[in-house]
Amino acid sequence: MSKKHIEIMDTTLRDGEQTSGVSFSASEKLTIAKLLLEELKVDRIEIASARVSEGEFQAVKNITNWASENDYLDHVEVLTFVDNGISIDWMIEAGAKVQNLLTKGSLNHLTYQLKKTPNQHFSDIKENIALAKSKGIETNIYLEDWSNGMRNSKDYVFEFLEFLATQPVKRVMLPDTLGVLTPSESYEFIKEIKDKYPNTHFDFHTHNDYDLGVSNAIEGIKAGADGLHLTINGMGERAGNAPMASTIAVINDYLPDVTINANEKALYTVSKLVENFSGILIPANKPIVGANVFTQTAGIHADGDNKNNLYFSDLMPERFGRKRQYALGKSSGKANIQKNLQELGLQLNDDALKKVTQRIIELGDKKQVVTKEDLPYIISDVLDRTYEEKVTVNNYVLTHSKGLKPSTTVSITIEGETFEENAQGDGQFDAFMNALRSIFKKKKMVLPALIDYAVRIPPGSNSDALCETIITWKSDTKEFKTRGLDSDQTVSAIIATEKMLNIITN
Ligand SMILES: CC(C)C(=O)C(=O)O
């Protein structure tokens, strides 16, 4: 059986821009349009509604200039209105060649919004299509609120389709304007229409109000739809449209008799660009493009990946230009750590791996996720501890207040004996060091001088990142460094200091 080609029309720049709070600049629209057609390779793009604004006019002009130089002009569409040809003139001036004419697909909309009869509406549409044709403009036609039309005024919808069969219309576009259809209705309605008009091209335009945008789109294709309207990251009016990435993945994996031109590998790049330009952040768990969707967190999954790829599915990250990651945290376990070490080209013996795992669990308890970039720092921190632990910092209180000197109370144990001391200082860490000096004075020991104190965070970290403090100490006999690692900077300095205390008492 020959496969059926489904057209993908991207409407990120029209319906997507109807996401509340989103407005793309002309140059952003041009950049997105180029990526959509050249990299993602969608068949068509809808780039604006006619007559919206001067800025929108310029945006359309920029895209049509570029499209005509690159043979894409027939793939660029503008939404127009039944307005005595004003929209048509607007789009012609902006250089566009294809109109997506917005008409009424339910009797309710026609009666209460346009206040017209079906015949009056059809006559206006006929005039519009003829005018467009005479000016070299191709027409696709939207039947707005078509889904409710099928539910409540089916006779009107079929009368409309009968009229359209006589018109030079390239595509009939069926929107589920309010996102109310169920998957079974989507199938049933489109099948009924396609059975009656097998030679007409029907696009299906779904919305995601019940989170059924993708399922409905897929059922629409199964029922015979010839094209789909999708948006990057599922942007669009209200809850948005069917998202490009997951719809494409479902088509490729579950509809073997269907072909599409869209290139999966470009999905992530386009999604990130649109995220940036729109300011609408991609949720971390958004299928295909979310930050976490190819990250295994539970150690049992990483372990299973090592054993015959037990936790793999067809949804491999590489298909979308992404990579599988293994999270580091409380529940990650040794297998996740090994996977990250492999990626960094590092090897640890069993004992070291055990210590690193333990430290990651401790850190995970505080910070939940430790990144791959943190790993070398954690390893240095843990493997630094080559001494017998004779000194333990048990507890401390550090105060910081306006107009008063920072102060501390510290409790430490030195070889089984516990000491507690209060002190003040120029800063919290200085106060902590003063308390230690007093304690060690009792033991007739002088602490080494602190000669350098450096703080850094692993590359690519954010504000809740781990923080590494490296302190250089100088005693009468030697100069040495210790490091501490924690999500809190003062705590990391205290860990480095505890190491120093152990070095001098060993
Ligand atoms: C403007 C129209 C075509 C639309 O996006 C819809 O009905 O969903």
UniProtKB/TrEMBL annotation:
Belongs to the alpha-IPM synthase/homocitrate synthase family. One of its GO terms (molecular function) is 2-isopropylmalate synthase activity. SMART domains: LeuA_dimer. Pfam families: HCS_D2, HMGL-like, LeuA_dimer. GO terms for biological process: L-leucine biosynthetic process. This is 2-isopropylmalate synthase. InterPro entries: 2-IPM_HCS-like, 2-isopropylmalate_synth_dimer, AIPM/Hcit_synth_CS, Aldolase_TIM, LeuA/HCS_post-cat, LeuA_allosteric_dom_sf, PYR_CT. It comes from the Bacteria. Keywords: Amino-acid biosynthesis, Branched-chain amino acid biosynthesis, Manganese, Transferase. Residues 6-268 form the Pyruvate carboxyltransferase domain. It comes from Neotamlana nanhaiensis. PROSITE patterns: AIPM_HOMOCIT_SYNTH_1, PYR_CT.
